[in-house]
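job 3f2a | input accepted
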Amino acid sequence: QVQLVESGGGLVQPGGSLRLSCAASGRTFSSYGMGWFRQAPGKEREFVAAISASGGTSYYADSVKGRFTISRVNAKNTVYLEMNRLKPEDTAVYFCAASRRYSGEYLRVIKDYDYWGQGAQVTVSS
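job 3f2a | predicted structure (126 res):
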């Protein structure tokens, strides 16, 4: 069992930056691929970014590529999402998730994740 807790959400102006953190419980964090997903009001949950268990490979949605960076520190059981040049359309609840998949394009797929956090609200507005 893995428990995930997100933090770092909030209100930011367009063009600003935020960093989300996701702290994981358990001693096997380094064996899980990790992902970030988001869900805006009235929309389906969508893939944002993912990182392999080792941290050596990352994956991004086209909408955030070049603006967002995912990273992880396995010694701290934590994964991060650095978000820059934020846009109003980035407004959503952001979810951290853990997958038993070590790496690969499977990490873009919601159904391949086994554990989810409770979500953190990110609002981009002037």
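job 3f2a | The chain has a mean pLDDT of 96.
job 3f2a | closed
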